[in-house]
Task: structure prediction
Amino acid sequence: MALSTELRQAKLRRLVETEGYPNVGALLQATITDSVCPAICTTETCSYTCEMEPDQDRGWCEECGTNTMQSALVLAGLI
Result:
């Protein structure tokens, strides 16, 4: 599923807020070398978050039951 730029940015902002970072850059810098990364469901009506592999682009969402979880690094286009 191709995400709109607006939805991608909104999901990244939500991860920043949820994880307690001051901005997207700080979140990415803190997680780029880790073995797990914050991830968020990319459906418009769900914002479930959890830790997943940094390259996750179709992870299982426990909240809405779909394979729509993406890591922050994937959302930001780094992976």
Remarks:
- The chain is about 35% helix and 15% strand.
- The chain has one domain: 5-75.
- The first strand starts at residue 37 and ends at 41.
- The mean pLDDT is 95.
